Amino acid sequence: MENLHILIPFVLFLILLILLDGSMILSLLKQGDERRQLMVWKASTFTLLVLTLTFICDIVRSILHAEPMTINPFVKLSTTAIMYTISLLYFKKQYGD
C-alpha cells in the first residue's frame, strides 16, 4: 500500500501512452480533405525523420561503446506517438483546423 502513490501515476502515464498510440493510428487511417492530409503527411514525415535520427544515434552509440544493439519497442513506440502528436498539433495550429 505504501507504493500505491507511485503506482497510480505510472498506470495513468501508461494509459496516456496507449491512448496516444491509438489516436496516432486512427489519425493515419482517417480520411479527410487536402488540408488535413497535408497536416498528417507533414507530421508523419517529421516523426519519421526524428525516429530515423534516433535510430542512427543508437547505432553509433552501440558501435562506439561496443555494446549489442538493443531496442525497446515500447519506448520507441511511445516516443513515436508523442512526437507524432506534438508535430500534428503544431501543424494543425499552423494550417488551422
TrEMBL record:
Transmembrane region(s): 6-29, 41-64, 70-91
Keywords attached to this entry: Membrane, Transmembrane, Transmembrane helix
Protein name: Histidine kinase
Organism, as annotated: Anaerotignum lactatifermentans
